[in-house]
Amino acid sequence: MKNTKTIFRTTALVASFSLLVSCFHSVEKKEFNTDLSKQDVMQRLDNQYYKAYGLHADLLASDSFEEGSEIYKELQEEVNETDNTEEFYEDAAYANAYFTKAVQKAESKKELVKPILEARINAVRAGAQDYEDTREALEEVDDDVIAFSENFSKTLNPETFAGLQKDYLSVEADAVKRTQLNLVYNVLDQVEEKDAEDLAPKTYNSTIQSLKTAENAIARNVRNMDAYSDEVLRAKKSAVLLQDVIGVITSKESDVAEDVALDIVKKDRKLMDYNSRISQMDAELESANTVMSSLSMEVAMNENTISTLKSKEAREKQVKEVIASFSDKEANVVTKGNDVVIQVTAFNFPFNSSELPSGADKLIAKVSESAEKLKADKVLVQGHADSTGDQAYNEKLSEKRAETVAKALRDQTDISIDTEAVGERSPIIGNDIKDKRAMNRRVDIILKDVMAL
User: Fold this and answer.
1) For residues 313 and 207, which has the higher predicted lDDT (pLDDT)?
2) 425-437 residue pLDDT tens
3) pLDDT by residue (tens digit) across 23-44?
4) How far apart are CA 30 and CA 104, in angstroms?
5) Are strands 443-448 and 339-344 parallel, antiparallel or unpaired?
6) What does the pLDDT read at residue 218?
7) How far apart are CA 394 and CA 436, in angstroms?
8) Which of 188, 194, 238, 292 is the most buried (most CB within 10 A)?
9) Could you tell me the strand order of the sheet in which 339-344 lies?
């Protein structure tokens, strides 16, 4: 009796805790099929996550996306654990619901703010995430977009709309400046610590002037490198000259005038030396700067690659399971490109008939289950006929057969189903074989793009 009470109390406590946890969620669970393994569930959540991220749900539906992402990251750590299975599926159902909601919200808004999103993409491509200052600027604009995102489904104030787009364009310009003039900025940081403005004011001011000119050239032609490359090179040469002049001045025990230092540098260096040094310094800076960003990118790419490989492997396994589930008497199932083709053999249509033969319901249900399992977005039913009679009539008859099967499938699933009349054009056996040509009075059911990731 004591054990029974303990079990009852424990069960009640777990139920109460589950109810309490569910109260904290703002969505209803979107549960996965209980037949799926933890790995299969994670593969589907991977797809949901990257789909949401690709739609900019992190900006357009940030609350739902962040809620889903938080649970998703926890599940990644728990997927290989053997305990807490019930809790895992419970959390996965909530993550799925949040990502689904995020996708729906993002899809409803993305076209309305397409110019803003394109401006952000261009800023990222320009390298905004590679430097601390531009990364912070990008995040600030992202925060503004998130703050206004609820109004994106309505009429957004034109000034606000233009302002957000302009802010991303500004970040893009700053990222291009940082990328193209990184050498100059680094040299200035170094020589300013050595009082360059006081030790070599003419060379220092000349470098600042060249820098500003290059920045302005970039600002006017952000995506046209040919229009600003000369000014950028001029600024780099000026920066290298300044670095060398300060090097001469600070290396001497006694004070050296700026003009004297300039003469020394110009005698020791040739123009080609500057070009060579600029290339070397650019390469060193790019290498140093890329190390950190490439590490984070490599992690992300590895995660994406692993996720994609896992998804592909899991999908191929599912397709093989579907193929194996049909006997030869039910259907011939093959893959064709990204499609799975189910050539029905379990039943053929009677001569001059489009009525579904008796006993066909069982196979229709099995096809529907297969489409659901493979997450097919679209199914195509192709109707066929033998060559007996008029060709045009057979075309219409094959369309009716396709529609009959499509209707039966629609009663089983919400997946989009199209039909196609093939008529007598694609026989699987010669129509001149009288006792076999009934095999041509058939349907082929194609699960579209289920192999694509």
Assistant:
1) 207
2) 888 787 777 777 8
3) 467 788 888 877 788 888 888 8
4) 14
5) antiparallel
6) 96
7) 17
8) 238
9) 331-336, 339-344, 443-448, 378-384, 416-423
Q: Give the whole-angstrom CA distance, residue 354 versus residue 399.
A: 9
- Domain segments of the chain: what residues? 114-179, 186-264, 326-448
Distance CA 147, CA 426 (A): 57
432-to-238, 425, 429, 440 alpha-carbon distances in Å: 87, 14, 9, 11
Distance between CA atoms of residues 355 and 243, nearest Å: 88
Residue 55's contacts (CB-CB under 8 Å, 6 or more residues apart) are 103, 106, 107, 110
C-alpha torsion sign, points 394, 400, 406, 409: negative
Unique residue bearing structure tokens 């056996």: 429
Give the phi and the psi of residue 279 in degrees, each rounded to 5: -60, -45
What b/e sequence results for 414-439 when a residue is b if at least 16 CB atoms lie within 10 Å of its CB, and e otherwise? ebebebebbbbeebeeeeeeeeebeb
Residues 6+ apart with CB under 8 A from 307: 43, 46, 50
- Name the DSSP class of 151: G
Rounded to whole angstroms, how far apart are CA atoms 263 and 244?
A: 11
Encoded tokens for 126: 């320009």
**CA-CA-CA-CA dihedral for 306, 59, 451, 313, to nearest 10:** 20
pLDDT at residue 413 above 70?
Answer: yes
Nearest alpha-carbon partner for 57 in 90, 114, 106? 106
Indicate whether this model's pTM tops 0.85.
no
> In 10 A of CB 7, how many CB atoms?
10
d(CA 233, CA 275): 9
Fold of 326-448: 60s Ribosomal Protein L30; Chain: A; (3.30.1330)
